[in-house]
Amino acid sequence: MPTLSSLLKATAAGSARIEAYEIDLKRAGQKTLQLVVNARVLEDGDPDRIRLLVAVADVTDARADARQKDDLIRDKAILMQELQHRVANSLQIIASVLMQSARRVQSEEARGHLRDAHSRVMSIAAVQRHLAQTGVENVSLRSYFTQLSESLGASMISDRDRLSIVVSVDDSVVKSDISISLGLIVTELVINALKHAFPQERSGKISVDYRSHGQAWNLSVSDDGIGMGDRAAKAGLGTGIVEALARNLQGDISVTDANPGTLVSVAHIADGVADVPAAA
């Protein structure tokens, strides 16, 4: 092994030091061993002699275990992505069935409920597709909320010149389970604004904002519509969903007059960290 020999001579001369030098030890009729060599000069106070301290570790089995683990993790990630795609496809089929049912029913109230269910299912399908594209561990909220808002707009806004959804999010990255809860909150608040804030073909904008600082974060959905009025007294399914999800995230909900429109915020304040304000 000429390279190792040269390194040992250089180490003995004081001009080098061997740290984690890897060798594949090949022997006829036997399996190849993976070795890791470390070497340094051993100072013993006698300048007339040179001693080297050399350590050789057999890492063959450890490397094989690591490769097997990596293979299992990669296979799991592939299976999870495939599962996410299949779930998203199934949800889109369900959403199509709901929309077809909404077109057939005679009751306007039933039609509204079916359309709301369609929008919720489509938003969850968008969640699944985003997780499949970005992986299942961590989710960038900017791209996620953008994709979610585009999905909601496509399913609920017929005239993009009249209504729009604008997303403003910092560089926050969260675990996938947290992103799902935040996404469902955004879905419910955007649906509520689209249903109630712009009656009689009124034009306007819905803004989705998220900011974080350490463990503290603030999610807000605002509109420039007609304001709360008597809507504050009406608690429907969407309100219950938002309240349950906010409790699960240890967040506090506040509803304020945006003048014009309405601002709904869900904030989580970490210990010792001030509240994170939403963008104006």
Task: Please give the structural blueprint.
Layout: H1 2-12, E1 18-25, E2 33-41, E3 52-58, H2 60-104, H3 108-134, E4 138-140, H4 141-156, E5 163-169, E6 173-175, H5 176-196, E7 204-213, E8 216-223, H6 237-248, E9 252-257, E10 262-268
Parallel strand pairs: 5-7
Antiparallel strand pairs: 1-2, 2-3, 4-6, 7-8, 8-10, 9-10
Helix pairs in contact: 2-3, 3-4, 3-5, 4-5, 5-6
Features:
10 strands; 3-stranded antiparallel β-sheet; elongated; alpha+beta; 5-stranded mixed β-sheet; 280 residues
Query: Quick check: average pLDDT?
Result: 82
Number of helices: 6
Biggest sheet descriptor: 5 strands, mixed
Rg measurement, Å: 30 Å
Give the strand order, joined by hyphens, for the main sheet. 5-7-8-10-9
Q: Strand fraction band?
A: 15-25%
Quaternary structure classification? single chain
Instruction: Bin the helical content.
Output: 40-55%
Order of helices and strands: HEEEHHEHEEHEEHEE
Q: Helix- and strand-based class?
A: alpha+beta
Structure explained in plain terms:
- With about 280 residues, the chain is α+β, with helices and mostly antiparallel strands.
- It is about 45% helix and about 25% strand.
- It has a domain at about 1-60.
- It has a 5-stranded mixed sheet, with helices on one face.
- The protein has helices at about 1-10, 60-105, 110-135, 140-155, 175-195, 235-250; strands at about 20-25, 35-40, 50-60, 140, 165-170, 175, 205-215, 215-225, 250-255, 260-270.
- Helix 2 (about 60-105) runs antiparallel to helix 3 (about 110-135) and helix 5 (about 175-195) packs antiparallel against helix 6.
